[in-house]
Amino acid sequence: MLDLAALFTSAFLAGTFVPCPSEATLVGLLYLDRVPRGALWLAATAGNTAGSLLDWALGRLALPFEHHPRFPVRRNSPIRARRWFNRFGIWSLLPARLPLVGTGLAVVAGLMRTPFWPTLLFIGVGKGGRYAALIWLTT
Question: How many CB atoms lie within 10 A of CB 27?
């Protein structure tokens, strides 16, 4: 149980701006072979998806402040990101599984006011696919 909590926490932090090696935690737990692979996949996917949903929520909450002088993103960056997001739509959340890029995509999805359920679905599918591939390649 403690292994799953550690993996969930590691994956959650990796889904945010905090650099955390969730893949290394998952591979280490796979080699220890104390927890079924399905449970490890579920904990990693749920944690990383939850972290990205936190980024999405922060993007939604930040929208009213984007014109404030201390807004942490350059003024033209949200405009470019919106154009890119408008071009690909909700499908642009599938690559949210990628480290570093995924965090930005989730924040932009929040800024673009994407609905919760499609956001959860597309981010979850991407994250779950990444961890499934990692488990398959490792075992």
Answer: 17
